[in-house]
Amino acid sequence: MITPVPRRGRRASVRRGGRATRRLAAAASLLTAAALVAACSGPPRNGAGSPGAFALSKGTPAAKGEIDSFTWAVYAEPPTLDYTVAFDYPQNTILSNVCESLMRWTPELTTEPGLARKASNPDPLTWVYDLRAGVRFHDGKVMTADDVVFSLSRQTDPDNAAAWAQIFQNVASVKKTGPLQVTVKLKKPDSQFPQYMATAAGVVASKAGVEAAGKDYGTSGGLACTGPFELGTWNKGQSIELDRFDGYWGKRAKSGKVLFRFMTDPSARTNAMLSGDADGGYLIPTESYDRLRNSGVGKLWFGEGLSTVNVNITNMHGALGDLRVRKALSLALDRSGFVRAGLGGAGTVTTSLTTRAAWAGASEQTRQAAFGGLPPAAQDIEKAKALIKEAGATGKTLTVATSSIGQDVSLLATAIQAAGTQIGLKINLKTIAPNAFTALFTDPKAREGIDMFPLTYYDSITDPLDLLTNFKTGAYMNFADFSDKGYDALVDQAAAVYEPDQRMKIETEMQKRVAEQLPWIPVAEWPTAVFLNKRITGAPTTISYMYYPWAADVGAAQ
To answer: What kind of fold does domain 67-83+225-303+531-556 have according to CATH?
Structure first.
C-alpha cells in the first residue's frame, strides 16, 4: 500500500476485482459522463461543491445483542495466516480477529494498550512493555515474556522472509526483563517502532504452539494466538471459519462464528451481499457503490482509510527522468473525472501524497504548513504542453501498466493515457493479469518496460512518515531509484523524534520536497468502504479493521 489495487509500502497490496480495461475512447467518454455525477468529498470532511456524495462515519451503530454467526465476503484467499507475512488485506482482515499485538490500533486510529498493559520509554533507546497477567492462548497456555521475545524475534529471522523486518532495523535486542516484562533496546531513537507495535509487526503467538506447527504454521491447524476468535475450519479455495474463543481475556465476541468466503469476482461479491449470502464486506468494488447504497437490503458506510491513490513512477531513466515531464503529467491529469468515475464519487482530489488524517498528531499550524503551497489539483493543459515542449519530450513514448483488477486501476491508467495524449506524449497501456499485478511490487523483472502504474497506498500507522519514508534512497517502494541526500537526512531526523508535532514539522519539509520532485504523482484520497446488511451492525468503518479485532464488535442490529 493494496480489494482491490496495489497498495502500500512495505506491505504493498493489490486489490482484486473489477471491469476489463477500457480503450482510451471509452474511458474518455466515461470520464466525461461522470461529470454529471455528484462530485466527491473527502477526509476528514465533505468538501465544497460535493454535497451528499458520501460522508465519513466514525463507525456503525453498536450491536444490540449476540448472534450465532455472520458471513463476510473477502476478495481473495490468504496464502498463509502467519503474522510475519501478514501484509495484505485478506490476511489482516481475518488475522486481526485471531492474533493480537502488544499495542492496539483503535477504530479512531489511535493507539492504546493491547497485550501490553503499559508501554514506557525511560530513555530514547529503550522501550519497556509490561504485559497483562492471565492472558491465555487458544491452546490454553498462559502468555509469558518468553512468548513475546520469541514472537518478535521471528520478525527478524531471515528464514521467515518477514514482511515487517524493516520495522526492526533499529532494534539492537529484545529481552525478557521479568516474568511479564519485555525490554526492547534500540540502536538509535526510532519513533516509528513503538507505533508499529499496534500492527502485525507486534503480534504475540505461543512459542510452544508455533514451534509445534513448524513449517505448517499459518497454513493449517491453529495460530496459537490470544484473540477473541480462534481459527476453525479452513476449506482451501472456499472459506475460513473463526470460532469464538470463550477463554478470551477481553470483552466476549458478540458472534459465535465468522465465516469468511473467498470471492475473487467483484460482481459475485456484490451479488452475495445483495442476496444475503454474505452479510457484509470491506473493500467494496467502486462500481458497486450505487447498487449497494440504493439496494434497500443494507447500508454502505465510509470511514477514514488513510489511503491515497497515486501514479507510481517506476522508471526515471527515460523521459520521466526529466522533472518537467512528471510535472506536465500531473498538470494534465483529470483528477476530478477520475474520482467520479474510478472511485464512484467517493474520494477527494489531492496533490498531496499523504492524507490529511495522517497528520492528526500535528498542531493546526503544522498541518497548514504541510498542505499550504502544494500545487493546484486542477488541470492546466496549456502549461503542461509547454513543459513537454521545453523538455524536448514531444512524441516520447511511455508505458503504463493496467489491469482488470478494478475500475480504480483501469480508469486511472486510461486517465494517464488521456492526459499524456493531450500534451504530446505517446502513452501505451500494458495489461497485466490481476494475479500477476502483485509482482510489480516484488519482482524488478515484472517492472521491466513499465514507466508507471496505478498505486493505492494505505498507512499502517497514523503518521505521514509511513508513506514519506518510501522515497529514501534504497527504500523498498522506491522503484525508480529516486535519490536525494537531503531528503534521506530528513527521514532519519524525523524518525528520531518522538514528540509528534516536532516530528511532523520535519515531515512538512519532506512533504514539500516530494510535492516538488514527484517521485509518485498524487491523485486522490480514498476512504474505506464497508457494507452491512440489516441483520448485523457494529463493524468499524475505518481502516483500523486491519489490526483491530473488529469482528468481535459485530452483532445483532435489532
So the answer is: D-Maltodextrin-Binding Protein; domain 2 (3.40.190)
